[in-house]
């Protein structure tokens, strides 16, 4: 049986107009992904086999690559004349991080997302069985209404007069200033999380609350959850509930 490669593979385009490819090995090794990319670029430079300047797709497999790692790799590639354009991954959190950076994200052929670790807080049965995460890119403006089954991650703002609702969590990578309804089918364990939580109205299951009036705490994401039948606002934990 052939052992899997332990280093990243830098594969030039075949000349058909397809981008170059950078293929990461299985994530069981001791080196991080940015170190593997740096080693692959150094080796290609030494062997004078660097691809011509152009676009590149990163094939990340099951790696969990946060935004910081992706930014570091994009900078390394840019210094070699390669523009990180696409991201193929079977890890859902990596796909979300790539989408946040504006990369073209997609699953590898015939792949499904890797299962994610359980949430840091106790999960109810309803939380475990909701539909998969829906990713929406773009700001919701006055009059817009985004409604999904399961949880939704919105990369953008929710402006006053706009609404977003989901049967699971509502996650906003931006400012929530409109109306949000999490657990719209009765899931009291659903949460609303935003980088800035100043909505006109919050709803979790059947509970309703108005948004806070003061300025948000600097540098902290905020969340709303249902506690003893009432909606409570507090700083969000460092890991958003993306595993539903």
Helix content, binned percent: 10-25%
What is the tally of beta strands? Answer: 16
| Cα gyration radius (Å) | 21 Å
- End-to-end CA span: 36 Å
Class derived from helix and strand content: alpha/beta
Mean pLDDT: 81
- Name the poorly predicted regions: 1-5, 111-131
The neighbouring-strand order within the major sheet is 6-8-10-12-15-16
| Count of domain modules | 2
CATH architecture of the largest domain: 3 Solenoid
Look at the structure and give the CATH class of the largest domain: Mainly Beta
Q: Give the amount of beta strand, in percent.
A: 25-35%
SSE series: EEHEHEHEHEEEEEEEEEEE
Largest sheet: 6 strands, mixed
CATH topology of the largest domain: Pectate Lyase C-like
Bulk shape: elongated
- Helix count? 4
Folded structure, characterized:
The structure is a single chain. Helices cover 17% and strands 32% of the residues. The longest helix is centred in the first third of the chain and has 14 residues, at 33-46. Residues 1-5 and 111-131 have low confidence and may be disordered. The chain folds into two domains: 9-106, Alpha-Beta Plaits (2-Layer Sandwich), CATH 3.30.70; 125-235, Pectate Lyase C-like (3 Solenoid). The protein is of the alpha/beta class. The protein is built from four helices and 16 strands.
């Amino acid at each position: 049986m052939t052992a899997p490669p332990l280093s990243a593979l830098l594969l030039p385009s075949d000349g058909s107009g397809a981008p170059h490819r950078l293929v990461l090995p299985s994530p069981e090794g001791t080196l991080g992904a940015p170190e593997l990319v740096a080693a692959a670029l150094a080796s290609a430079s030494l062997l004078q086999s660097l691809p011509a300047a152009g676009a590149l797709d990163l094939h990340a497999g099951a790696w969990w690559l946060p935004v910081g790692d992706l930014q570091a790799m994009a900078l390394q590639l840019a210094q070699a004349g390669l523009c990180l354009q696409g991201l193929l991954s079977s890890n859902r959190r990596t796909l979300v991080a790539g989408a946040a950076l504006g990369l073209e994200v997609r699953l590898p052929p015939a792949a499904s997302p890797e299962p994610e670790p359980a949430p840091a807080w106790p999960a109810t049965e309803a939380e475990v069985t909701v539909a998969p995460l829906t990713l929406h890119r773009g700001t919701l403006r006055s009059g817009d209404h985004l409604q999904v089954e399961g949880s939704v991650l919105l990369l953008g703002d929710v402006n006053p007069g706009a609404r977003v609702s989901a049967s699971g969590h509502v996650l906003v990578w931006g400012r929530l200033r409109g109306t949000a309804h999490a657990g719209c089918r009765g899931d009291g364990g659903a949460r609303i999380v935003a980088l800035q939580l100043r909505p006109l109205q919050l709803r979790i299951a059947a509970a309703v609350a108005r948004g806070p009036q003061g300025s948000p705490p600097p540098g902290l994401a905020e969340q709303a959850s249902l506690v003893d039948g009432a909606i409570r606002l507090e700083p969000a934990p460092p890991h958003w509930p993306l595993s539903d």
